[in-house]
Every structure is written in structure tokens, then in C-alpha cells.
Fold:
Amino acid sequence: MTTPHTESESTAPAVRAEQPSVLDLQGLLKGSRLLVIGGTGFLGKVWLSMLLRYFADEVEHVWVVVRPRKRKDGSIRLTSEQRFWKDIASSPVFEPLKTMFPGDAYDAFLREKITPIPGDITEEFAGVPAEIRDQLRGRLDALVNSSGVVDFNPPLDYALNTNAFGMQNLVALCRDLGSPGSKGLAMLHTSTCYVAGDRTGQVDEVNPLNHPFPKADTLAARHWDPQREIEECIDLVDNVRHRANDAFRQSHFLDQAMKNLRDRNEPRRGTALKKELEKVKRDFTDKQLVEWGTERAQYWGWHNIYTYTKSIGEQILADSGVPYAIGRPAVIESSLTYPRVGWNEGINTSGPLIFIGVEGKLDLPYKPGAVLDVIPVDLVAAGMMATLGELLEGSQKAVYQYGSSDTNPLPIVRLVECVGLFKRRHYQAKGKGNPLVNMVQSRIEARHMHLDDYLTIGPKVRAKQVAKLGKSLQGMARGAFRDVLTPAVSALKGLSKSLDIQSRIIDQFIPFTATHNYRFSTRNTRDAWSRLPEDLRTAMPFDPELIDWHDYLLEVHCPGIEENVSPLIRDKMSKDAKPLAQHDDLWQMIEEVADRHEHRPALMRTHEAGFARFTYKQLKARAEAVAVRLGQLGVKRGDRVVIAGRNHPFWSVAYFGILRAGAIAVPVDVNMEAGPAATILRSSQPALALLDDLARENIEAACLAADEAVPIHDLLAICERGAVGSLSPYEVDADAVASILYTSGTTGDPKGVMLTHGNFCAMVASIGRLFPLVQEDRLLSVLPIHHSFEFACGLLLPLSMGARIIYLDEVNGDRLSYGLKEGRVTCMVGVPALWQLLERRIRGEVKERGSLVKLGFDTMIDLNLGA
Structure:
């Protein structure tokens, strides 16, 4: 257990300098060498820019730790140097420096002053390589750290790694880099005012060891020890992970993974199942770690895991013996003036709230008289400068808070009011979009409500009500009501999800707006800042008492959010949906859909008496029969097999039979002339060719005239039932070639493109998200099936979704109409010529019904085009 320090105890080295009346920051920084961690973040970049803007001549050099970007396999995608120039040096936050050093002088200045180095605070010595530590040891004046997890409730292990173990690694780094005989390199560490937890009202800048947890006034302090907390949290994490391996949990995870994949119409075997199983297990452990970590944090008086682990980190630093100062910002928001008015970056604290208030309807729970401690980022950076000055001087206090609530509190009522006013102004001035929608939106204002009302009628309750309504309608969306109700069900699901997200965002603010009313003292910060020379106080003001909140919110912060943050949120919301999980190979896809849809029709073909049907189970069985026969004909793994014929269920059967035999399909245009066909045969060197009667007329001569005659077999006959023999083991993977597709090049000769099983499976997964077919869909296939467009979208995609495919016995206007009507087709793959054919036929039928019908039809078309 740690021994509490008294407030009079210094965090400085043993010999304490006498505090002068003026804090000569320029003199203290003269020739200084600093190590900065967290310089890629919102606050870190502003502080670094301000440091170089006002102390360019004084600061000798800054080493900035930039974590390299890695690929999934662990290889480096962007080095520290590359990421610095991409993410930091290019940021608008450095515009003041670009003004000071125009053109090439800017890059030259940064190269002179800054060296990016690799690092990661979750690793030993914060990930700084040994060779770099050897170069820096004894040469640095201070470490400035503004890194850390900012998610309110991350999984406990993740928060510990960054905020607790990360601090242990930073302390070890400071001890390693300090001058010989010193206690270590001095550290300015940024934390958060909200480590106050359940304390409310006045919160002073107290050494964290003096009040180690928020309920220290009511719970026995002897049971608290940050090191013990870490050890017990490690045990908790290990226990959760161990329990996740229990047999009944493993069974449940498998069931849940299978259900998730089934609900998303994704493969339930192979790599897709393995990844989903890992995700389900990870979601379970994360949820448990959030719940158990939150329970532990709230027992000691913190609201969430973030502030709990941040406070542990503070105490590790305070008890380390390393010279330190802790900077605690409140809610960091848009800049007042530096680097420009309203600068903001990333999806920060109030950004989502204001976005909800502008784009929708914000209901913010509040407590009468409650305030939100908002502080502009440039004021925080200025406070950090003054803190760093006292740290370098050796006169530092343990804690410096950066906030506004002690001198100029922002009432929650005023915040909500100003968001509503900004929204009204935004939509009234908006020149784009529907004027009626803009008018309605401008009148839907944000509102504050008591917590009891929020819990009764807030977004979480509305989300459940909407979801319940959606489920009721989904049960009715069958038969004749399907087309009408399905869009409504989809819209209600989207609304329920939106309300649920809104609820999760707003719920995190309840402790700060509705149950507590903080006033964070900034006395130490104001005292340090007031010691700066007048010119620096003018250049780097820390004067929250002068903020006009009405002006700041309407003219600075909300416009800053709209310009810098809202586009990020919109991009995140409209980001292309990730592809569906893909099958490992095409034959696995057939096995999957045959097991899942068994007796549902997969392939249909028109004939005089109606439709011939082949179920998914029959498709697989017939493809296996083709594979048996191909094996008996001498086809081996890796052999090429030409396939050419009209669009027909048996073309699809034969194609998958070729794959099941381990061979490679070479689809050829059924109408191809002998010359180009001979070129394909010469290039592909097939073992045999599967041709229907029409393909024989065009291609048979080329097969017989090849250097080595290509054996020809009837495409339809090889797909019949009754093959006798055994299947060879299936030994094909995603990297194996599935098809060689030939297209005409600029020389006129067909050119072969080898496409693997993985290529096709990835393509189907991608387009499956864009065109989400369901098993009730019926696709009419009329484009040539050998063509890659029809093959991917008209064969592989519908089969992967459990839909059915309809082929025509003859491709003409009458049979097309018959197929569309009698087959109750819901989708088609087409090209402009096909749509023009359909349009001519529709217009012809309309014209036959008389001039009045034609006039009405033309009028509706014109209205539709003008909509």
C-alpha cells in the first residue's frame, strides 16, 4: 500500500529552485530537448504547433514518438517517419508555422527541429528502441505525454494496457533516459479532470496520493492500493478469458456464430465460421471486461473504466519518484484562436452530441443548475506551457487543472439552447436539399429534460418501441404484403439502430450533465500562467473567464464541429458496408447452399408446359456426377476443360462439376467462330471440351483441328443422373485457379485471364453487400452465361444467397415476357441493349391500348424523370 503524500511535499528533484516572480519560459526552453508522446492526437498536435510557433528559436530539438502503422500480418505499412509527414506535418494545425516558414522553408524547419521515432506506450520503455534510448540518455530535459485511451468504457484489459501499464512503461522510460544520478527524466502527463469521479461541487488540484479514490471519505483507505488493483484486474482479465474456454461457452459461441452467419446469409463453415467464432468470443470477453471493470470502478467511486484507469496511472506516476506534473483538462473543445478560430479534429467529446442536435433531435438529461466544463483546446495548450515551465524550473505542483467551471461555468441549459439556435440558423441558411425538410428541421430543436423523463421517454425506450413494431411488421411481410411492408421493416430497423446509437452516446454524459455538478479549480494553472511575461500571456492566453458562451457556441464551436467533425461522422455513417464474409472456394459455396437450402429451387428453365426445376440439393448431386464422369474420362486436378453452351441449368451444373473434379473451367462463347476458338484451344490446352449442340456447330471443327485433337463430350449428357463411381478427394484451396476467361484484346486475339476461387468468392462477397438478394428473389438470366458479368452477378451471386435463377428455352420477346410474368422475376442482370429491348416492348404494348393510355403513360414517365 502506498503512503499518502502531504500537499506540501514536492514532486521536484531534491534541490528545489527558489520560485522567481516571473516564469521565464523562454529562458527555460533555451536549448531544450524534449520527448513528446501523443503528438498525433488533437491536443498533442495543437500543443506541439504552439510550442514551435512561439519558441522556435529557444527549443533545440523535439523527438516525437509516432506509432508505426502495421498491417494485419504485423508488417509495417507506414513507418514513424512516413506517418509523421502524412498525419502530423500536413495537418492544418501547423498553418501558423507554414506562415512563418513559407514554401520549402517549412519542411526544412520541421526536419531541423523534429525527429519522429517509433514507439508504443503499451510496450516496454514505451516501445522506444534501445539504440534510440542510447542516443537520448542524459540529453533530454522533459517528456510530455498526451496519449491515452479516451473511450469512456473500453474493455478493462485495453484500458489497463494504455493507462496503467502504459504509465509503468513511461516511468521506466523516464528512469532510463534521466541524467546519471537523477531520479529520472521529468514528465508532464495529461490526464483528465474527471478522475474526480463521484466527487461533486468544488474539486481542487490535489496530489492524487492524498485522495486516491473518489469515495476515500466514506470507504476505508487501507484497502486501496493501485498496484493491488492492477494485480487483481489482471486476475479478473485472466479469469474472463479462462471462463471463455469453458465447454458450455464454446458450444454457445458456436451456436451464436452459426446464427449470426445464417442471419446475414453468409457461409457457415471454413474461414468465415472461424472468424465469426473468434468475433463472438471476443465480443463476450469484451462485454464481460467492460461490465466487471465498470463494477469495480464504480465501487471505488469512478463513473467508468476510463477515469478509473487514468487515476491509477496518475498514482503510479506520483509514487514513482520521477519528477512530474499532472495536467488535467476538462472537456476539450474547439479552439478560440489558435491555430485558427474553431479548429477541431476527430470525433471528440461534444461532436456527436452536436451532430445529433443538428441532424436529428437531441434530448439531453440534466440536473437543474448543472454545468459542463468546456475548455477550448488552445487554452489547454497554453496551460500546459505554463505547467511545463514550472516543471523545468523545478517549482511544479502535483496537479494543474485546465477548465472553465470555477471561473465561468457553462450551464447545460445554455449549451442545449445554443445548439438549437445553431440548428435553426443552419437549416434556414441551407441552400441545398429539400426546402420543406429544411424548414421542418429548423423547427425541431434540442431540449434538456430531467433524468427521470429521459429514462422514461428517451431514445433507448423509443429504440425498443420501434424495434418491437418492426418485428411485428416483419411477421406480416409475406405474400402480397411483402413488397409493401419489407421497405417499412427495413426503415424501422434503421431507425431503431439510430436511436440505440444515440442513446449509447448520450448515456455516457449522464454523470457529467444529470447526476453531478463539478467545479474544477484551476488555481495552480492560473497562478503559473500569471507568472509568464505579458507578451506570452497575450500570445498564449489562459482566460476562460472571458469566454462569452453564447458567442463561442454559435460563432466558434458549433461551426467548427460542422466544418471539421460532422463530415467525419457522416463519412463513418455512409461508409461503404464491408463485404459479406466470403466462402473459401466455389465448391464450398455449393456445399454450403445445398445444405442450407436443400429442396428450394436453384435453377429453372422455361419450356412449353411451364418450368423445369432443379433444387440446390440436385445441383450439388448432379455436379458431383459430372465430376465422377470427368474423372473416368481422365481429367485430373489442374486440367483445363472447355465449356460452351446456351444459358441452361446444365451449363451451371457442368461448371461446378469441373471445379469438383479439381479442374479449371474455360468458358467459351457458344457463338464463337472457329478462328478465335482455335486460338483459345491453343492457349488453354484443354483435356476435353463440353459442348451443347449449338456449340458443336461453331467450335467442334476447331477442337478436331487442334494440334492434339480435343475430345468432345455432350454438355447435357454428362450432367444426367446415374453416374457410377467414387469421387476423388477434394483438394482445392482459395488460391487455385477456377476459370480462365478469354476476352478479345486490341490485337483481336482472345487473351486469357486466370481467376482463382478466392477472386470469385471475394467478388461475390463484395457485390452481395451492394445487391442484397434473399432466397425469395428470382433472377432471370438472359446475358451470355460465359461472360464474367453474367457469371458473377447472374449465377454466383444468386446461388450464394439462396435465390433461384430462371433460364429461357428461347431468347425472344415472347419468351422474355413469359419468363418475367410467369417466373415472377424480381431482378435481372442487363446491359443497355437489353433495357432498350424491354422499353420498346413495353411502349409497343402501351401504344396498342390507345392514345389515352399512351398519354397517361408518357405523363407518368415525364413526372418520374423530373422527380
Summary: Residues 487 and 593 are 26 Å apart (CA to CA). The radius of gyration is 35 Å.
